[in-house]
Structures are given as structure tokens and as C-alpha cells.
Amino acid sequence: MKLLIVANWKCNPKTLKGANLLFNSIKRKLKKVKNIEVVICPPFVYLSNIKLSNHSVIKLGAQDCFWKNFGAFTGEISPLMLKDLNCKYIIIGHSERRKYFNESDEIINKKIKAVIEAKIKPILCIGETREEKEKGYIQKKLKSQIEKGLKRVPKKEIKNLIIAYEPIWAIGTGKPCDIKEAQTAYLVIKKIITNLYPYSISKNIKILYGGSVNSKNAKSYIKQAGMDGLLIGGASLNAQEFIKIVRTLT
Ligand code: PGA
To answer: Across-strand partners of 89?
Structure first.
């Protein structure tokens, strides 16, 4: 399976010029990378300005979307609009959206369905808080987020789904998840999706790790924890560091 490395720029950089600079330095250096798909998810407003090249390993993604394709929904951006701008992936249910915008599993479920319907690949983010981890609720939390997020998603549509395991306490903290714990989470998630969907389908669902990934720990999440890719926030804003991460995996 091709590794999937997703850069989540969040609400950065501050200017279009900065976004183009960052994107172009990444694009230049990753020209020859093989067997890895790199997805850059900039803020919506930069999407149409970013110049991909046809043969590039880099694809575009978005950080969120609305669940309807058009209509009177002030301020929203739809899956079809993002498809029109060449987005191949959309991150859904990131913990920052759950926290700052009160996104519930029900809203996330609507978004997942809309993204799948638009034939774009959704990246469903899940993960426990520090408190849930300490209380031993990791499995329970992951199961509930997956089951609610994927409620009534038909099995024939599920093959394009990607799940990102992002323990909330590891995001942006510089305290990445222990490799053994990440491996356990990987197996737990595999088991949950295999209970929901036939193995022939669930085996193709990629599971990514996200939370304080850097060029020193990236390889262990793939080689030791068995992850199918990474979701990278802070380190993806530094072209050199991001390129280094991708290169350690080739
Ligand atoms: P981080 O963010 O790499 O800065 O921890 C990851 C994410 O939120 O996707």
C-alpha cells in the first residue's frame, strides 16, 4: 500500500505569498519521490492559487467542508466546490473543529457522507483526550467516534475512507504518542472497522498517525507501529523539516 503523508497547514501561513513559497519549496524537493502520496491541505483561500504540476506526487486536500453542495449557507464551502479546485482529500472531524466549533459526531457523519458522495476521499480524525487515556477509555472513545462518524455509510463507498488517529494530548504539544501505544491504537482501529465492514473492504482503509510528528519519530510510526501514513501539522509548515520527514520514509 502506498504511504500517505498529509500536511495540515491549519490557519497558516499568514499570506498567499507565504503559502506559495512553502508549497513551491516542498514541490521542488519532492519531485522524484516514489511510493508515497503527499497531500497538502492549505486554508481554503489559497487552494485555487496553488500550482500543482501534472506528474507531481503532491495532491491537494482541504481541512474541512460543509455537508451540502450549494444553497443558502452563509460562509460555508462545499465538497463540490473543493472538487472543482482539484481537492482529492478532505480532513473531517479534526479535534480542533470538534473543540472550537462544537462539531459533533452527527455533524461529522453528515460531512463524511457528503464527501464520499462527491467522490473525494475523507480523512476522518479520531482520538482521545489525556483524561480519557488516563481513565482507560481509549478503545471506547475510538469505537464510538468511528461508529457514529460512519453511521449508514454504505460499504461499497467505504474503500476510499482514511482514518487518522490523533490523540488530542499529542497534537501540537511536542509530546508524541508512544510507538507501542500507537501500534495498539492501530490494531484497535483495524478491529473496529473489520467488525463494521467485510475484511475485503476494511483491509484497504488506511490508518494514519498524527500528533507531534517530526523527522526523528516519523519512521517509527510507519515501521514499528504499522501506520499507513501520517497527518502532520506544525512540522509541515517548515519546508525543510517536512521534506526530511518524507525522505526518511522513502
Ligand atoms: P501537530 O498537529 O503535528 O502540530 O501535532 C497534527 C494535527 O493536528 O493534525
So the answer is: 61, 121
Q: Which of 96, 103, 128, 166 is catalytic?
A: 166
Domain architecture of the chain: domains with CATH: 3-9+58-212+223-240 (3.20.20.70)
Let me know if 55 is a catalytic residue. Answer: no
| Catalytic-residue membership of 94 | yes
The pTM of this model reads 0.97
Pocket of ligand 1 (CB under 6 A): 8, 166, 171-172, 210-213, 231-235
Low-confidence ranges of the chain (pLDDT < 50): none
Q: Atom 1, ligand 1: which residue's CA is nearest?
A: 233
User: CA-CA distance, 77 to 74, in Å (whole number)?
Assistant: 9
Q: What is the pLDDT of residue 33?
A: 87
Question: Is-contact 7 62, C-beta < 8 A?
Answer: no
Contact 53, 36 (CB under 8 A): no
Rounded CA separation 110/234 (Å): 28
CA 149/CA 48 separation, integer angstroms: 29
The Cα 249–Cα 3 span in angstroms is 9
